[in-house]
C-alpha cells in the first residue's frame, strides 16, 4: 500500500471521531451523517454540520461548527 493510501485511510478513520467530538454527536446521530450534511470549508477552513435528527439539538439551533482539522480529515472522502 502506498503512503498516500495509508494517510487517506488513517484520515477517514479519524473523521467520524472528529465529527463526534466537534458536534457532540451520539452514536445514532453519528451513523446518520452523510457527506451532504457537512458544508464547507469556509475561508478559515472550518465547516458546519447539519444533523438530520438530533436528541441534542431539540431546539433546532441549526448547523454546528466543525473545526478546520475535522474538515481536513473529511477532504479525502469528499473528493472521491
Summarize the topology.
Layout: H1 3-23, H2 27-32, E1 38-39, E2 47-49, E3 64-66, H3 68-79
Antiparallel strand pairs: 1-2, 2-3
Helix pairs in contact: 1-3
Structure characterization notes:
With 80 residues, this protein is mostly helical. It has a single domain (3-79), classed as Orthogonal Bundle (hpI Integrase, Chain A). 49% of the residues lie in helices and 10% in strands. The chain has helices spanning 3-23, 27-32, 68-79, and strands spanning 38-39, 47-49, 64-66. It has a three-stranded antiparallel β-sheet with strand order 1-2-3. A hairpin with a 7-residue loop joins β1 and β2 (47-49). α1 crosses α3 (68-79). The two termini are 18 Å apart. The mean pLDDT is 76.
Shape: globular
Count the domains.
1
Main β-sheet, in a few words? 3 strands, antiparallel
Distance between the termini: 18 Å
Total count of strands: 3
Structural class: mainly alpha
CATH fold name = hpI Integrase, Chain A
Strand content: 5-15%
In the CATH hierarchy, what is the superfamily? Intergrase catalytic core
List the uncertain runs: none
SSE arrangement, N to C:
HHEEEH
Percent helix range: 40-55%
Amino acid at each position: 500500500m502506498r503512503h498516500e493510501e495509508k494517510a487517506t485511510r488513517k484520515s477517514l478513520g479519524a473523521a467520524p471521531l472528529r465529527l463526534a467530538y466537534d458536534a457532540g454527536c451520539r452514536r445514532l446521530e453519528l451513523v446518520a451523517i452523510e457527506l451532504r450534511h457537512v458544508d464547507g470549508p469556509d475561508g478559515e477552513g472550518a465547516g458546519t454540520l447539519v444533523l438530520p435528527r438530533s436528541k441534542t439539538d431539540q431546539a433546532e439551533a441549526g448547523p454546528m461548527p466543525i473545526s478546520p482539522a475535522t474538515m481536513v480529515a473529511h477532504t479525502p472522502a469528499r473528493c472521491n
